[in-house]
Amino acid sequence: MAINVVVHGVLGKMGQQVLDAVTNERGLQPIGGADIAATAGSIALPDRSGEIPISSSLADVLDGADVVVDFTNAEGAMSVMRTAAARKVNVVVGSTGLTEEHIAEAESLANEHSVGIIVAPNFALGAVLMIHLAKEAARFFDYADLVETHHEAKIDSPSGTALAIARAAVEGKGGPFIAPKSEKELIVGARGAVYDGVSVHSARMPGRVAHHELVFGTLGQTLTIRHDSINRESFMPGVMMAVKEVVNRTGLTVGLDKIMGL
User: Which of 132, 154, 244, 258 is catalytic?
Assistant: First the structure.
C-alpha cells in the first residue's frame, strides 16, 4: 500500500523538488500540497499524470495523509508539526533554524499524539556521512576550521549542517579545540565565529546550493573533509528514506544518521 504524502511549502524550490521526487518514487503517492502563497484549487503533478489539491491551510489537505514533508522555515515547521500531529499524521522536517525549545516541543507533540517526527539539518547522505566522519577524526587533531557556503537567500548563518558538524567534532574530541586569536585583527570578525574552538566561516552568494569544508590541523599535517551539494536533487534520496521510515517510528528522531545506521 502506498504512503500518502502532503508537501508543505510546495510552491517553493525545495517543495517543488520534493513533489517531483514523491511523484516518481515507488511506494509513495502525493495527495496534496500546502503553501502560504497558495490559493484554493489544484496543482499539476510534475509528470503530468494528474493533479492534487493545494491550499494555504495545511489542515485543508490532510485527509488521508500518512506523512507531511516540510521545507519552509522554523515557524512553518512548528505549525506543521502542531497541525499534523493532532491529526495523527507523521512529519518529516527539513526546515532549518529550529531551536532547542522547538525540538523539545516536537518531541512532546510526537509522544503525545503517538506519531513519528523526523527532523534533519541536512538530507544529503554525503553531508550526514561528513558529520559522522568529523566525529570519528576529531580526537586526533587540535585545530579545526569550518567553511560553509550557501545561496544568498539563506536566512540563517551558520547553516544547521555546519553547526551539526562543529558539534560532532567537539563531541568526538571530548572537549574544545584550540582557536588562536590574532594579535591584531584588522577587520573585526576576520577569524569567523567560534564554537568550542571550531572557527566557523559562512559565505553567501548566488549559484551555490550547500557546501561544507572542515579542515582539521595538528603538528605538521591537516585533514580536509568536504561535501558539496551541486543541486537540490542531492537531498531527495535522504528525504525519500525518511518518508518511508517515519511511518514505522513513534516519537522524535533528530538526524538522518539515526536511520542510516551510523
Answer: 154
> Is 154 tagged catalytic?
yes
pTM for this structure?
0.86
- Residue spans per domain, the chain: 3-119+233-260, 125-230
| Catalytic choice (8, 102, 113, 150) | 150
Q: Are strands 51-55 and 41-44 parallel, antiparallel or unpaired?
A: antiparallel
Task: Lay out the sheet containing 90-93: strands in order across.
Answer: 41-44, 51-55, 28-34, 3-8, 67-70, 90-93, 116-119, 251-254
**258 noted as active-site residue:** no
Is the domain 3-119+233-260 a CATH 3.40.50.720 member? yes
Give the fold, CATH level 3, of 125-230.
Dihydrodipicolinate Reductase; domain 2 (3.30.360)
**What does the pLDDT average to over 215-229?**
97
Q: Are strands 251-254 and 116-119 parallel, antiparallel or unpaired?
A: parallel
| Cβ 239 vs Cβ 94: under 8 Å | yes
Query: Over the stretch 4-36, which tens digit does the pLDDT of each residue have?
Result: 999 999 999 999 999 999 999 999 999 999 999
Q: Which of 134, 98, 93, 133 is nearest to 115 (CA)?
A: 93
